[in-house]
């Protein structure tokens, strides 16, 4: 699944986030990369564990975890802690695969899905495209500020070099309660059908209850744990 969700952050919330990035403590992003990824990572990352960064982290997490389309597509059991990255001229994040497990202790999770929430207006920087090498071919994304791209963590991906301006993005990972990717896709398709029927049929139409039953039983069958 390679999915772009539009306007996950609205204009007001986006402006709020961008205003707060100037108060953050930025560090070498290579410190958080593992294995081969460390050698190809050239960016900065913000400290989101204390001070203004902690409040910004909580705001972004609340917004993302409540987004209905992201929830329907990812079937999240848990989100990782979020990272905020800044990539300037000559910065990049070369081809790599995300670690299969992230975090420590009770926060440790399996990375089924990765996401990038774009924060910079694409007209303000050159390069910086997110490229994901999927089974069905390569996907390249440089969407509007406030849009989010969701993709499998196991796919090789990269952030192309930035040649002008500055690219700001929030990145994170999701452990899905539905481990099988095809099952997640099927549930997402059914959720889209449910939304479509809701706009076409009266609330008491029997089709609603029948579809609710199918989705509920598939979630029970496919959910981990």
Description of the molecule:
The chain has 225 residues and is an alpha+beta fold. It contains five helices and 17 strands. The protein folds into two domains: 3-176, Sandwich (Jelly Rolls); 181-222. Strands 1, 2, 4, 5, 6, 10, 14 and 17 form an eight-stranded antiparallel sheet that branches. It has a five-stranded antiparallel sheet with strand order 3-7-15-12-13, with no helix packed on it. Strand 12 (130-134) and strand 13 form a beta hairpin. One of its GO terms (molecular function) is L-ascorbic acid binding. Its cofactor is L-ascorbate; Fe(2+). Keywords: Dioxygenase, Iron, Metal-binding, Oxidoreductase, Vitamin C.
Number of domains: 2
Work out the helicity level: 25-40%
The helix/strand series, from N terminus to C terminus, equals EHEEEHHEEEEEEEEEEEEEHH
Strand content: 25-35%
**Count of strand segments:** 17
* CATH C-level class of the largest domain: Mainly Beta
Count of DSSP H/I helices? 5
Sheet having the most strands: 8 strands, antiparallel
CATH architecture of the largest domain: Sandwich
Q: Average pLDDT across residues? A: 94
Instruction: Specify the overall morphology.
Output: globular
Output the structural class: alpha+beta
- Cα-atom radius of gyration: 18 Å
> Could you name the ranges where pLDDT drops below 50 across 5 or more consecutive residues?
none
Q: Termini separation (Å)?
A: 23 Å
